[in-house]
Specification:
single chain; two-stranded antiparallel sheet
């Protein structure tokens, strides 16, 4: 088993379960769960992983997720409730579980290279082969993919069960602010000296160093996959800082605003145009627009994300106009964006051959030269990776589950007797919605995103229960007269009034969200 990184990288992975156990021993369950996921994301090494037969790799994503899950199971003595309350959520979860099996069964055939048809003959030419074939999927891959998905999605389900209250969501914001302040110093060091911390601590640089150079200087990587991830993390912490300042007690408000301004100041230093645009749009929206508009924005983002692959395939996304727009600000970024669009188009053409189930794993979703087996296609967006591997069914399952919290909160927020949504919740809605948008150009689906999504879905479920209670209290109850039956309706002469419950009718309908 070849391991990337030095002994300290391996030691950090092996030691993190012990750190998580200590956090659950000395912190509240909510705080320990948040920091188990957030701390691992911030501090553990990239790429380094422990590979054992029969299970997915153990790395900075899976180790914190699985350890937190096991510790909570041991503490509670039972499995936490993993199923969403609404029918839509349960249906999406079932589809997410079935999708890998259906994809595997549709991709049992290997993809072979070097063959061409001349006339009626099949001719093989192996002189220029880079690879001979991509293997077909096996039933083992089904089980492996299911386990991998379960390990990755654990923060979503744990948060949905344990981070249900406004106080728990405030803890997420507080942790983001603290995490942003912790990361501020290493970010400034790498902006000044170039990204070196991962090399100094873990013995290797986690990406292509040329991508660290930007605008005549450097952008920080610290211990995250790429500078894009660090930039988006800076945006998340700045939004959290503003939300905490807006909701702070009067005697703490000045200090909170100072912290928020410090975190906002880190965003332009990351030299990432997309994240700067998110901040320029959403920080003013958080400050000056109401929570209901925040929820509406989240719902609109959900629809855009779900419809994007179809719109992209039909040519309704103005890619040329977007490239020209970015070119007015930064020609280098415009070239990078055009490169992404071109590669996405090639994968979309390839996916048209297997649109429902996709091509599966082993890199089969990338188009390859049929004679050489070579592929120069590079993908960045989570959406194109998902739809290429698992087709439309897999995309709807995963992204439907991801945007469900935004849709559910908007649906509950529009109800007549819904309680006002506090800024601590609506701020996380904006942060999460921005991350959904960012999944189109980038693969920034990280454990912290899933933790926030699960917490927002839980809050929507609690919001529905509270609104039902308020509605019941606000509904006037008329005292039945002697001429009225048990149901409150006048009984027809010669007929007894019929109670709906007596006929087996369901009076209360279950919410779909």
């Amino acid at each position: 088993m070849e391991i990337v990184g030095n002994s300290f990288a391996v030691g950090a992975l092996l030691a993190w379960p012990g750190v998580i156990i200590l956090m659950f021993r000395f912190l509240s369950l909510e705080r320990a769960l948040i920091w188990s996921i957030l701390g691992g994301y911030m501090l553990l090494p990239q790429i380094t992983e422990l590979n054992f037969p029969g299970i997915p790799p153990l790395n900075k994503t899976t180790i914190p997720n699985v350890t937190a899950f096991l510790v909570i199971v041991v503490m509670a003595g039972r499995l936490p409730g993993l199923l969403p309350r609404g029918l839509v959520g349960r249906g999406l979860l079932l589809l997410l579980a079935l999708s890998p099996a259906m994809t595997a069964l549709g991709n049992l055939d290997p993809v072979r290279f070097g063959f061409q048809t001349i006339g009626g003959m099949l001719v093989f030419d192996g002189s220029n082969l880079v690879r001979s074939e991509l293997p077909g999927m096996r039933l083992y891959d089904v089980a492996s993919e299911l386990v991998r998905q379960a390990m990755i999605l654990m923060p979503f389900f744990l948060a949905r069960h344990y981070l249900r209250s406004e106080a728990a969501l405030r803890e997420i914001l507080r942790a983001l602010v603290i995490g942003g302040l912790i990361y501020a110093v290493p970010m400034l060091i790498e902006i000044r000296l170039s990204p070196q911390l991962h090399t100094w601590v873990y013995g290797f640089f986690q990406h292509d160093f040329s991508q660290a150079m930007r605008a005549g200087g450097f952008r920080p990587f610290v211990f995250m996959p790429h500078g894009l991830w660090v930039a988006f993390f800076a945006f998340m912490t700045a939004m959290a800082g503003v939300a905490m300042a807006m909701s702070a007690a009067p005697e703490k408000r000045v200090n909170q605003w100072v912290i928020a301004l410090v975190l906002i100041g880190l965003i332009p230093l990351t030299k990432t145009l997309g994240v700067i645009a998110y901040a320029a749009l959403l920080i003013p929206a958080l400050l000056f627009l109401g929570a209901r508009l925040h929820l509406l924005f989240g719902a609109a983002v959900s629809l855009v994300v779900l419809a994007y692959p179809l719109a992209r395939g039909l040519g309704y996304v103005p890619t040329g106009w977007l490239v020209r727009l970015v070119e007015g600000f930064n020609p280098e970024r415009a070239s990078s964006l055009a490169f992404r669009f071109d590669n996405e188009f090639l994968i979309l053409l390839h996916t048209e051959e297997r649109p429902l189930l996709g091509w599966g794993s082993w890199g089969r979703f990338r188009p390859h030269d049929p004679m050489t087996g070579d592929s120069g296609v590079i993908v960045d967006g989570q959406w194109i990776i998902t739809i290429g591997q698992f087709g439309w069914l897999g995309y709807i399952a995963l992204f439907g589950l991801l945007v469900l919290p935004l849709m559910a909160l908007w649906w509950q927020g529009r109800r007549t007797h819904a309680a006002p949504v506090p800024v601590t919740v609506s701020a996380l809605v904006l942060i999460y919605a921005a991350n959904m948008i960012d999944l189109l150009p980038n693969a920034t689906l990280v454990p912290l995103t899933l933790l926030i999504g699960g917490a927002l879905l839980a809050y929507s479920e609690e919001m529905r229960a509270e609104t039902d209670r308020r509605t019941a209290l606000a509904t006037p109850r008329r005292r039945p007269s002697a001429l009225l039956g048990a149901s409150g309706a006048a009984a027809a002469p010669g007929r007894a009034a019929i109670d709906p419950a007596a006929r087996g009718l369901k009076v209360r309908r279950r919410s779909m969200l």
